Amino acid sequence: MAGQQRKKQQRHVIAALCNFLFDCRKITASMFTSGFLILDTHLRHVPKGNVMTNFFCSTCGSLMYRRGAGLPGASILRIGTVDDFKLGETALRPTIEQYVKHRVDWIKDIENMVQIEGQASVGQASV
pTM here? Predict the structure, then answer.
């Protein structure tokens, strides 16, 4: 029964993909885009959780940074929004993977990164 229900839901998924195109990195403010296409008739939004304030680029609409109740006085900027992509490989190269218990099984540990089950503390995240 559960398998039948899952197959029924999956047929509305048109495609699932990862994309490394520079424009898509800018739009998602990340090092790559992972996403899927689905029929609008099968989409609904259910808000819940930590209160976050999002700040977007006034030109292209990309998410630039976020501020959350969990990190007062700090902002979470997106590496993918930085114009100099080389900085993502040098000065802004991540050193920590957090919430690794939620990582999908097709993405493996990144070499030489600290693995944290939950959220990194400010001290752990310092560069």
Answer: 0.59
